[in-house]
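Entry:
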Amino acid sequence: MDVQLKRGLLDICVLKILTRGDSYGYQIVKDVSDIIPISESTLYPILKRLESSECLEVYTVEHNGRLRKYFKITAKGYNKISEFIEDFQQVIDIMEIIKEEEDER
């Protein structure tokens, strides 16, 4: 799979997981890995990028005497998911046309 395409898909998968509720890194890795394989070293740059683009908010909670970072999707994050769905529908439409032309050969 193309690296840029996979990167975009991972961003959306992370955001989609967070529509279920706020979560922290390790749990996000587990949840996203049910959809597409991801490692912690891949996840954290994604979270940072999504935070920088204001698609996520970050806050900390004490857990077993340590601070744990939690991530929460924002309105901008929900909009990014909606835009992705619209854009991807266009890709599907184009693929259908290409497939029809190939099937006609």
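The mean pLDDT is 91.
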